[in-house]
Write a structure and sequence with these properties.
With about 260 residues, the chain is an alpha/beta fold. Helix 5 packs across helix 6, helix 8 runs antiparallel to helix 15 and helix 15 crosses helix 16. The two termini are about 30 Å apart.
């Protein structure tokens, strides 16, 4: 734990070096709060913390973020948005990220980034990436309890299965290649496969025909060092590695 804290703090400290002002995205969650806390410790003067606030209490974390900003002696900069703003900004968010998004999180981050730039900031610290190395997503918990060689208490496994939303509408046989290669199918890959199958309805027939017979998983694993980085590791660590090498740089860091 101490080694992790030192490495984390050093990473934040180094990224505060800039010739322009450096701010922080602050959602109210533990990831961005931790980044802000360390940034405030090493930053000369108060850090400006930018937070999206929503007009619906069930989605709004503004008060939590404000409390954290006060604790870190940061300058709190709330950016209020409404549901209509998400709808109006959808096309621009897709244009700027050049990728599809499965919900409105990319639009929200686009609106946040636009406001931050208008405030004169070009560099910000964010909490993205923490779930990738600490297994914060629900599908990682599923990989952990579902493929735990030491056994998992039935009540724990049941709780994780009930709390996670996983779509399994795809043909399981299509994932057999992944199962043969790894010995299991990562939860996030199974979900992504099912979601991508639903996308066929919005793709042109010409596009679909051009990829007929294409082995997507063979292409996916061609650039992965399975023998060197995955073989012999626990399923959870394999899943974390694959996500960090693919979804994190190609989707999350592009969209968020």
């Amino acid at each position: 734990a101490e080694e992790f804290r030192q490495t984390f703090e050093e990473a934040v400290r180094l990224r505060l070096r800039a010739d322009v002002p450096v701010g922080c995205y602050l959602s109210g969650g533990i990831d961005s709060c931790a980044v802000l806390g360390l940034a405030a410790r090493h930053h000369q003067g108060p850090v400006r913390a930018f937070t999206l606030t929503f007009d619906r209490p069930e989605y709004d974390e503004g008060e939590i973020a404000k409390e954290m900003a006060a604790k870190a002696e940061a300058e709190f900069f709330p950016i209020p948005i409404r549901q209509d703003d998400l709808a109006d900004g959808f096309c621009d968010a897709i244009l700027q990220s050049e990728t599809l998004c499965v919900n409105a999180h990319g639009v929200a981050k686009y609106l946040l980034s636009r406001a931050v730039r208008k405030a004169g900031y070009k560099v910000v610290l964010t909490g993205e990436g923490s779930d990738e190395i600490l297994g914060g997503y629900l599908h990682f918990r599923r990989d952990m309890v579902g493929h735990n060689g030491n056994g998992t208490r039935p009540n724990v496994a049941a709780a994780v299965s009930q709390s996670a939303v996983f779509s399994r509408n795809g043909n399981g046989r299509d994932l057999d290649g992944v199962r043969r290669l790894l010995g299991f199918v990562p939860g996030w890959m199974e979900t992504s496969f099912a979601l991508s199958a639903k996308m066929h309805a919005v793709l042109s027939r010409e596009f679909l025909n051009s990829y007929a017979g294409h082995d997507r998983f063979r292409s996916f694993f061609n650039d992965i060092d399975v023998a060197g980085q995955l073989a012999g590791r626990e399923p959870l660590n394999q899943s974390l590695y694959l996500w960090a090498k693919t979804r994190l740089p190609n989707y999350l860091l592009v969209l968020l």
